[in-house]
Amino acid sequence: MHVETSAGIVLEYEAFGDAEDPTVLLVMGFGAQLLAWDERFCRQLASRGRHVIRYDNRDCGLSTKLDARPLDMPAFISAVTAGDLDLARSMAAYSLHDMAADGIGLLHTLGIDRAHVVGSSMGGAIAQTMAIDYPEHVLTLTSMMSSTGEPEYGQASPEAQQVLFAPRPADREGYVASAERELIWASRRYGDPAALRALAAASYDRCYYPAGTPRQLAALVLNGSRAEKLRDLAVPTLVIHGLDDTLIDVSGGRRTAELVPGSQLLQVADMGHDRPPALWPLLIDAIAEHTRPVSPSGTRTSA
């Protein structure tokens, strides 16, 4: 299914559960399609009395592609490195604020005024920005395996960074095989090369579109630090981070929880920059608890 937001962006989405239940909007990260939120994970969360929505960010999957705004990545990096952010912004097709507005626009188009927002990795940065820019529409925030935009926190290991930015083969066989590189940031205990290959194959077949990732990266880079705004955030916040994460170090999650007043921090053993099925019960329990409706007296209900 898809909708067109008031900004003219078409977003592909899928929904699970009863639309009368509280909505949980799942926001995916850099270059990843909605498939990266495993359907079984979504259905299990929906079975806890939640209306779960996963969607493709712009420039990814089946959502709007910004082909008319190609990005010269070497020139962009040169501008950022030189500190010429005005030039860098002129090259970027959109901002992280635009990507956050997409998610809110999706909710509004579906007639949903307020939702619980869960973001993973770059999706965590987008979800944080939703909560910062649109607090009246975000019931709760769950920031998963993400950071604050401050360069001194959440650093990738050199090996993980190399894999992240290494071009993947354009042919299907090579693309699928190269997915095993992501074991570098997966759970050391539960890392599953077959699952990585299966997701890569499904993603390739659904929509192979590498041209969108530089534009998404530019939006993330130019967003900079969210630290000061996170200090003032009044949205109830849960931070989840894996202790095995080498792509976004756990310091990113700890810093997020440190900044957001009253936030909760869940550090997960045997979790990397992934969500292995063995940990779904723990993660779903945590999200379900965090998104429980609040009674007029201020206590959470049993729903």
Please specify the SSE layout and strand pairing.
Elements: E1 2-4, E2 10-16, E3 23-27, H1 39-46, E4 51-55, H2 73-81, H3 85-91, H4 96-109, E5 115-120, H5 122-133, E6 138-144, H6 158-165, H7 172-178, H8 193-207, H9 212-223, H10 227-231, E7 237-242, H11 250-259, E8 264-268, H12 280-290
Parallel strand pairs: 3-4, 3-5, 5-6, 6-7, 7-8
Antiparallel strand pairs: 1-2, 2-4
What does this structure look like?
The chain has a single domain, classed as Rossmann fold (3-Layer(aba) Sandwich). The chain has 303 residues and is α/β, with parallel strands linked by helices. The two termini are 28 Å apart. An 8-stranded mixed beta sheet has the order 1-2-4-3-5-6-7-8, with helices on both faces. It is globular. It has helices at residues 39-46, 73-81, 85-91, 96-109, 122-133, 158-165, 172-178, 193-207, 212-223, 227-231, 250-259, 280-290, and strands spanning 2-4, 10-16, 23-27, 51-55, 115-120, 138-144, 237-242, 264-268. The mean pLDDT is 95.
